[in-house]
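Chapter summary example: a protein plus 4'-deoxy-4'-aminopyridoxal-5'-phosphate.
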Amino acid sequence: MRIESDCNFDVNLVRQDFPILSKQMNGKPLVYLDSAASTQKPKSVINAITDLYSNYYANIHRGVYLLSQLSTDKYEEARLAVKKYINAQSEKEIIFTRGATESLNLIAYSYGRYFLNEGDEIIVTEMEHHANIVPWQQLAKEKKLVLRYIPMNDNGELLLDEYEKMLSNKTKIVSVVHISNSLGTINPVKYIFDKAKEFGAVTVLDASQSIQHTQIDVQRLNCDFLAFSGHKIYGPTGIGVLYGKLDLLKKMEPYQTGGDMILSVTFERTLFAEVPGKFEAGTQNIEGAIGLGAAINYVNNLGIENIAKYEHSLLDYATSRVLEIPQVKIIGTAQEKASVISFIIEDVHPHDVGTIFDKLGVAVRTGQHCTEPVMRHFNIPATTRASFAFYNTIDDINVFINSIKEVISIFD
Ligand code: PMP
């Protein structure tokens, strides 16, 4: 089909890099449409982890012996790969965490707790994942801060006029999701952050759903902090990244304390290690970081622009096919969208949709997608969400469309 020949890589070859994609589920070929929840892993990531355990595994930053130096080098190479991928100024600005959730909690704890005062304001949006709401709510409760939410319209687009009215000298943090995981909206974060900077606010980007779909340049975007999870960009679970501007990281307190994050400990006092060590307490997820480095190399080899272009064609095709079915309503119809179709089928609960899809080999997500305020906005209990990655094909989408039709015929 036109879309696949448009693409700068061979999707069928790419699929062979992902062993899981050739599996059967419930006797049907797997059609994996849940990449927004977690992406599948290419062989290069799986092999990088096996290679570590088979050939050079040891604890990092400690041993003077060769094995420990080899694993330390690979761990630090992964940090460099992340630095380059997001165009940070220094590798010291890259901190490995457990995932986006931990990265956002770290900012709230180590920055918010020490630098915000009673009456200060934090702005997030109505479409945030809970991971970018709850840490700020907790902080607001503790420090008597005001938490504001940029509202959105019924297409799932932020009301920027309302945002601009909210900004004032009291605004200290503006934390925004780049691409919504439940609506697919791509937010104009550069504009949002430029406005925030006019008031001197610190800017935070939740890149959990954009890091794998679009080029990110932290310097161009004017963002002070950025958070993402490795498992959403074809890497392992349990590893994530916090990017932070060096001057901010230097003045922040540690999030956790213990081994490896210190320079010196006596009974009386502790001197902390330099950034990023100060924020990496205890034995780190060594295989996670190395796997993430391999995942970023994989994405770089395909080219993020090629990925974005192909996924956009998939989304356009899928959207046009879904729109042909009158019983289906798409939730999230922003002008700028990426890789997600959330929808409801008239008179069918999303959990029933998901269960029938599963019997047909189609993996989708059903529920609130950790965005309960979004569901409230649309006055619905849940949606079914299909999310696409570069390893999906036109055939996958055709199976998806036929599965919707099957659900409708069963409930008719
Ligand atoms: N933000 C967004 C937009 C997300 O989609 C997710 C994961 N669904 C998170 C934050 C949290 O990521 P994790 O659970 O990997 O920490």
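Key point: The domain at 11-42+303-411 is CATH 3.90.1150.10 (Aspartate Aminotransferase, domain 1).
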